[in-house]
Amino acid sequence: MDALTNVLVSGLLLGGIYALVSVGLNLIFGVVRIVNFAQGELIMVAMYATYFCFTVFGLHPYVAVFLVMPAMFLFGVVMQRLLLEPLRGEPLMQIFATFGLLMLLQNVVLALTRGEGMSLNLGDSASVITLLGIKASSARVVIFAASALIVGTLTLFLQFTLAGKAVRAVIQDQDAARLMGINVERTFLLVVGVGAALAGVAGSLLAPIYTLSPYIGANFIMPAFAVVVLGGLGSVTGAYIGGIAVGLVEALAGYYIDPALKQAIWFAIFIAVLVIRPSGLMGKAGAEEIGLSDHH
Amino acid sequence: MRKSYLTVALLVAGLFTLSSTQAQEPIRIGDISPFTGPLAQPASEFAAGHELAADVINARGGVLGRKVVVIRGDAGNPQQGISAVEKLVNQDKVDLFMGTYGSALANAASDAALRYNKFYWETASLAQELTERGLPNFARGGPNAAIYAESSVKSALEVIAPKLGKKADQLKVWIEHEESVYGTSIAQMQKKLFETAGVKVVGVGAHNFRAIDLNDAILRARGATPDIWVLTGYVPDSTLLLRTMRDQGYVPPAILMLGTGDGREFQQALGGFMDGIFVVNYPHEDVVPRFAPGAAAFMEAYRKKYGREPSSPYLVLVGYTSTMILFDVIASAGGTDVDKMRAAVAAIDKPPYTYANGYGAKFDAKMQNTRAFTNLTQWQKGRSVTVYPNEMAAPGVVLVNIPRK
Prior knowledge:
The complex is a heterodimer. Helix content of chain A is 72%, strand content 3%. Chain A is mainly α. Chain A has a single domain, classed as ABC transporter involved in vitamin B12 uptake, BtuC, CATH 1.10.3470. In chain A, 52% of the residues are buried. Helices cover 45% and strands 16% of the residues of chain B. Chain B has helices at residues 2-23, 40-59, 78-90, 103-115, 129-132, 145-163, 181-196, 215-224, 235-248, 264-270, 295-306, 313-333, 338-347, and strands spanning 27-33, 68-74, 96-99, 120-122, 138-140, 172-178, 200-207, 228-232, 254-258, 278-281, 375-380, 383-388. Chain B has a seven-stranded mixed sheet, with helices on both faces. Chain B has a five-stranded parallel sheet with strand order 2-1-3-4-5, with helices on both faces. The A-B interface holds A 3, 6-7, 10, 14, 17, 107, 110, 114-119, 121, 123-124, 127-128, 135-137, 209-211, 213-216, 218-220, 223, 247, 250-251, 254-255, 258-260, 262-263 and B 36-38, 40-41, 44, 179, 205-208, 210-217, 219-220, 223, 235-236, 239-240, 243-244, 246-249, 263-265, 268-273, 311.
């Protein structure tokens, strides 16, 4: 019984990580209708930026996040304006462009750091919380809380603010939104900026947990794709529920079946969802045709 | 009339230049490794060792009077390895190859090198298969996976078990490994060796080195209550496993890591938690000079060339050592012809402790250096200290934190 509780807690916390990483990807996916292959690298860059703030300025990651987040927002806006916007109407080229950005970011960071594995060490003492007799890394608990907070805030934003309603309109139908007087280009800038800012938050909060490498982005983004498909394209709460679900499945499969198979298991779920219900648990039907329809 | 004199003069000058160039034609070596990509850092450390060896030998007048030039060929996978070989042969006119951080890559590249009739000198990759396949142009100057596995089991039985007050048949080990052929092959060898010695292997766990959560691996091991937790992996998974262990409050009586765990990044990631952790790996530069005659001088040369400490000095050192063995082989072969080099490899006999990190040179029929070895180090107060074999450890070295607290 104790093992089961341990596994469930660990699965929930892992789900929090997946949810945090997936929200930004899902938002960009759902609104701009492109797969941002560089999302993992945005997280990676944010991790290094956080490391830099820590080692050079002595800023704790939970403080540095307030610098990293707006910086990443700007990066996202620039990425949309200079890289993606000029390729509008050519979704495949946009995807290739994000892939190119992925390689650029990886290699720039490799060149700057020589690929050495760097780690933030916040010290042993503050790192563990005990909940219900189960030990949990406090960094992961913070991530769990943060992802819930972010999803909650985003949902409120999308539901109750004018800009949020504009975003939802664009998710539903770009052309109709334009006809309603919504500035679709400005919405894209906002959304990609927010998506990148969310990657920034993820990077700052994840930095204390992992040894950084220029290639660590891929490790997060692979499960994020499964989460986004499971939860439903364009649905923020879907990404959250999908993340928690994938985290729990992975933790249970890893402990009770075989740690070597756990990734195969959520890939199997990924494929099954694509076949049975392509729009995911909570996605808007039609959102699955990413950019391959005539919507402009 | 003047034109023809000029032509003759030019021809004669040209002939002279040609002949003197022939005599000074450098030995070009293609160095194939994943210099970009996730393995860039260790790959570059090995290459730095190769290039430092080239610097040192050139300062002494080169090999057979010829300067040595090392040309890097970046290859992230076997296919790129083949392309790199082709480019280095056709464009850079290399005489032979060396490498390679990654056994699959070494396999493909050395195969390609054979088609061009070039020798391939391995300094890094560990897979048994590389020498077992009996390729006529392939020799390995450093240790292989079996040497690693044997050394780790020996360390467990002769160093760690006595400190835990356990005999072999009372000992329980958990073998954790990364799931590619690297970790799996070593884990399989370790399991066999442990069981032959009467040790109980309470579990074998495989994990993906890119995993972002390894809680299950720790929970499973904890449930099996091993005396020694043994790990073969890479940096990202090893640091994550150790952090998870720390966060979960799981304290196995002893931790033994193989192939990774003694680098600076571990100290940075885990600080004092590392104290007491044992690592089996290439000899470190702190080995007493009698058994590592060039190590101190080599460290100086590195600092001078790069202006910083190497982050994994033992990797650079073994790359350097292995390359110096290669130069001796070329010298005795009188050149880089494959058959002559094969003969030179078979004939070379340098006693243990000849080279900078303590290696000797004596190759078996499959061209594996039998005088390459690994040592056991332990983290003590933030430093990686050689503890075994005893004679190689600095005087006064004792073991700490065992059983772990």
